[in-house]
From TrEMBL:
Record's keyword terms, sorted: Flavoprotein, FMN, Oxidoreductase
Keyword match Lipoprotein: no
UniProt name for this protein: Nitronate monooxygenase
Coiled-coil ranges per UniProt: none
Classification of source organism: Eukaryota, Viridiplantae, Streptophyta, Embryophyta, Tracheophyta
Molecular function via GO: nitronate monooxygenase activity
Organism for this UniProt entry: Clitoria ternatea
Superkingdom classification of source: Eukaryota
UniProt xrefs under Gene3D superfamilies: Aldolase class I
Amino acid sequence: MGTILSLTESMGWRGIMGFEYGIVQGPLGPDISGPDLVAAVANSGCLGILKAPDWESPDYLRELIQRTRTLTDKPFGVGVILLFPHEENLKVILEEKVAFLQVSWGDCSSQLVTRAHSAGVKVVPQVGTVEGAKQAIDAGVDGIIVQGIEAGGHVIGQEGLISLVPRVVDLVGNRNIPVIAAGGIVDARGYVAALALGAQGACLGTRFLASEESYAHPIYKSKLVEYGETAYTDIFGRARWPNAPHRVLQTPFYKEWSSLPPHENEANQPVIGHSKIHDLEKEIRRFAGTVPNKTTTGDHESMVMYAGQGVDLIKEILPAAQVIKRVVEEAQLLIQYKP
């Protein structure tokens, strides 16, 4: 028992960065990980991450953060895509002293980290390469989410977790920087596998997307259970976010249009729906990179549906707390540790 307990502690079982468990809920865009989901995850002892708007909307973001705080007194994070306008949003995150700033698709500079630390905010970038991890370490980050090509949504790297995670773990060495694996992990087996690779935690996206509290449209959630295959593609959102490949469900619409010519994009396509995304009313055109949320009307089944490679293991929509409970309890059994 002593050996198992030591192994368990060394694998980060008792949590990372002050959280009870080493489970992170990835920021689900554009607004799928809202206050309800983030609070449910935080209240279960894990790190929940809001998704900030991909445009400057500081007043709305402040409201989003404060709404989340009415649902939980636990720490949580906010995810920002650095490729899009974010300076005003960042100011709000630091002013509100949110526990964690999660950043992706951009340079996580030492200046950004210093600025966040000055406000008492920890920085956890998402990277997809060893080079990205090295830059993050040099910048002084507090943790690193390592995203493999198995992940759903926009994928920044080209390498699988089984080779990428150990390399980043070795690079981190004895520095106090937790490595968190992301990509295709939906259950206890994936979580324990990530720990065995040397990670101290796992970031789950698609599994929390398919939760009761996520802001995804019910049709989107049902398709996550119905379909089991994904594809790595670039046919959605080319005009708004060029050179940003993504992993999606292989829906009938995707299969019909998977060979979309490179010169085509959503800009000249017909409008197939409408949605309120964060604080703005938006048209959704065919091939847009915007998933359907609860407000979305129109031809839902022709819209993009991001999902990671582990989606076929998701058999039902569950409350976020139950997702976490299952992962924790089944992982304990897998590593033969009974408290």
